[in-house]
Automatic annotation (TrEMBL), chain A:
Protein name: RNA polymerase sigma-70 factor (ECF subfamily)
Domain RNA polymerase sigma-70 region: 20-80
Chain ranges of the RNA polymerase sigma factor 70 region 4 type domain: 111-162
Lineage: Bacteria, Bacillati, Actinomycetota, Actinomycetes, Kitasatosporales
Family affiliation: Belongs to the sigma-70 factor family. ECF subfamily.
The keyword Isomerase appears for this protein: no
Source organism of this protein record: Streptomyces zagrosensis
From TrEMBL, chain B:
Assigned protein family: Belongs to the YciI family.
Protein name as catalogued: YCII-related domain-containing protein
UniProt domain YCII-related: residue ranges: 1-98
Annotated InterPro entries: Dimeric_a/b-barrel (IPR011008), YCII (IPR005545)
Originating organism: Streptomyces zagrosensis
Taxonomic classification: Bacteria, Bacillati, Actinomycetota, Actinomycetes, Kitasatosporales
Gene3D superfamilies registered for this protein in UniProt: Dimeric alpha+beta barrel
Amino acid sequence: MNRANVREAVSRAHHEEWARVVAALTRRFGDLDIAEEAAAEAFATAVERWPTDGVPPNPGAWLTTTANRKAIDRIRRENKRDDKHKEAQMVYDADPPEPVGAIDDDRLRLIFICCHPSLAMRTRVALTLRMVGGLTVPEIARAYLVAETAMERRITRAKTKIKAARIPYRVPSTEDLPARVSGVLTVLFLVFNEGYLATGPDTDPVRHDLTAEAIRLTRLIRALLPDDGEVAGLLALMLLIEARRPARVSGSGELVALDEQDRGAWDVALIAEGHRLVRERLAAAATGLAPGRYQILAAINAIHTSARDVRDTDWSQVLALYNQLARLDPSPVIALNRAIAVAELDGPEVALAAVNRLDGALADYHAYHATRADLLRRLGRSQQSRAAYDKAIELAGNTAETAYLTRRRDQLR
Amino acid sequence: MQYLVSVIDDKSNPGSTDRQPAISAFNERLIAEGHWVFAGGLADTDAATVIDNRGEQAVFSDGPFVESKEYLAGVWVWEAPDLDVALKLATEASKVCDRKIEVRPFR
């Protein structure tokens, strides 16, 4: 077997098996740190051995066995060091609550422990990418523009807290499940958004590694919780946004707004999959299940991706969905996006009045100023538009967005 | 597993003072469900004295070890199988006391 094939086999096994290996070891040894280290060692051993020994017929089983052995080695070493056998402190799930969805999978426990509400949001993100996604600490540090040592500390601190405070390794009870799933989805959407609108002067405008990882993890959760509407909604939302990625940044690195995108460049397979999920949720809504925010956002994106030409966009439907969303989440950001639909239906003047009301809440949000700038431009109020563009450029952190806003400003007469 | 559960009050925005009946009822429940280990409300931080005897002689200072807007108003020690159980109780405790609650595991 040649090197390239082995490398591919290792990377495929890493994608498919990492979370499973870490999850199984965490369950067996009751310690995230041992599980993480042993899994990493097992994969390192695979990189070393597979080129000469060949790829085992069942890579997952090979990796789990190897990781188990590494974990036992470490525990033996540590037990020799301090005589008293230190019992693993994490709580085993001796009495699991009723299985959730179709599969009761250790990976679900792993996801829930990484996204535990007692951990800081950025810690949840880092821990999920490390333990579930299998990204290395340097990779996560790079993704979030944090020094490696700082990222290492963040992850170590989290593992220490999980152990010391006894955060349980289990799937939450039915009663707590919706809130906890929603917490997990927040983490995944955060990862996706950082990839989709990467910040930092020297970063690529779109970090495909992060959007792809977020989609992969959401697919995993979808497989584990197939009946959860919001999981389906978030997956659909990500797919429909990701589908537009090829058309979203121009050759010169400038953001291309939705109304100017080459719709022929959109990924039809991702759109079809996203639309399928949205239809599934619409059917569920028809039976009286009220959709959550991700399902509504996915439906809005489905309307955009259904229009072959921007002029075919069903704006009244978009507005109706934003109204529904605003009832669920009366946040100023939703109101801002709603105003964009209002502009299409009732004109920029009406939309501008709605946007101006958000000044107090969104004064530091670049999209608020960008939206105002665009509405003022459409109303022919160039001077005010220019000032709004200036403010938006000052606040935007994404290189492609800055380039786009700068061009629009410089085109003002 | 035991947790130190601290009730935190805020001098500039104190919680309401009529909570005692609700707290007593909550304590009854903690006892009935086997979580209660210890509870006690604390006198004002002005009543605290800090002793430092790390040097040649003991130094007493009047007042708490740290002056802050937020201060410890009372403590519980709870027995709970894991943090999820403790957090659920703490969520209720915060309502019952009308104050912030910190949950910290004992080693």
